[in-house]
Design goal:
This protein is α+β, with helices and mostly antiparallel strands. Helices cover 10% and strands 18% of the residues.
């Protein structure tokens, strides 16, 4: 489990392992959610950056008859 410490100016540092695995970049926008006593951080991507991310997806599966 990765941990971070809240600095006196309320900044936190994202662990390097997470930065690399999610390909985060400096200046990237994130969204922060509060859920009771938990904090969730989600990286936001520009629509242009998502272009082609479904390339090669397997679409060969049985659909329900009312969904064709």
């Amino acid at each position: 489990m990765n941990t971070a410490t809240i600095q006196p100016d309320f900044n936190i540092t994202i662990p390097q392992e997470i930065i690399k695995s999610m390909s985060l970049k400096a200046g990237q926008t994130i969204q922060i959610y509060q859920n009771k006593n938990k904090i969730q951080i989600s990286a936001l991507n520009k629509i242009k950056d998502l272009q082609g991310f479904l390339t090669g997806i397997n679409t060969d599966f049985n659909r329900e008859k009312d969904r064709i």
